[in-house]
Amino acid sequence: MDTRHTVIESGLGPLTVVARGQALTGLYFADHVRRPAEETLGPRVPAEDDPLFAEAAEQLHDYLAGRRDAFALPLAPEGDAFQHAVWDLVRAIPHGGTTTYGTIAERLGAPGLAQRVGQAVGANPLCVLVPCHRVVGADNSLTGYAGGLSRKRALLTLEEPAEVTASRLF
């Protein structure tokens, strides 16, 4: 297959975007917890030379600048059936919203599988695009994020509804 990657500079640091054919298969931070080995990413190509990467870069920049709240990109993450079921529910979390691992487990009909849901969320190969930063702990605490909790906080702050921001005391 035509696996390749590019690196897009962002306010969150460099983002490595991976594609196979005409779909994105990965988006990773430089210090991503589950970042694949460099040799599996295919050749590095300039984003502007690849229409899919150019569109991804534009949409990511717009999102991080607050001008976009959803992505319209072809995605093809690799994972098992359970992971895909979790990722589909994560993709359905609205911009500015959050949910918990337990709520996702309940929606899957398996309330006792919150920990397995957490593992699937942690294995999400398309961070930001599949917004796993919107999944929080049962007490609404910020829990693990493959890109680090400071990035998770930054993404949630970026998406925070205006009325919530306005009501803050700090």
Automatic annotation (TrEMBL):
Its main location: cytoplasm. The active site is at C132 (nucleophile). Residues 4-77 form the Methylguanine DNA methyltransferase ribonuclease-like domain. It holds the Pfam family Methyltransf_1N. It is found in: Cytoplasm. Residues 81-160 form the Methylated-DNA-[protein]-cysteine S-methyltransferase DNA binding domain. It comes from the Bacteria. Its EC number is 2.1.1.63. Keywords: Cytoplasm, DNA damage, DNA repair, Methyltransferase, Transferase. It catalyses: a 4-O-methyl-thymidine in DNA + L-cysteinyl-[protein] = a thymidine in DNA + S-methyl-L-cysteinyl-[protein]; a 6-O-methyl-2'-deoxyguanosine in DNA + L-cysteinyl-[protein] = S-methyl-L-cysteinyl-[protein] + a 2'-deoxyguanosine in DNA. It is an enzyme of class 2 (transferase). InterPro entries: MethylDNA_cys_MeTrfase_AS (IPR001497), MethylDNA_cys_MeTrfase_DNA-bd (IPR014048), MethylDNA_cys_MeTrfase_DNAb (IPR036217), MethylG_MeTrfase_N (IPR008332), MGMT (IPR023546), MGMT_N_sf (IPR036631), WH-like_DNA-bd_sf (IPR036388). This enzyme catalyzes only one turnover and therefore is not strictly catalytic. According to one definition, an enzyme is a biocatalyst that acts repeatedly and over many reaction cycles. HAMAP family: OGT. Belongs to the MGMT family. Involved in the cellular defense against the biological effects of O6-methylguanine (O6-MeG) and O4-methylthymine (O4-MeT) in DNA. Repairs the methylated nucleobase in DNA by stoichiometrically transferring the methyl group to a cysteine residue in the enzyme. This is a suicide reaction: the enzyme is irreversibly inactivated. This is Methylated-DNA--protein-cysteine methyltransferase. It comes from Streptomyces rhizosphaericola.
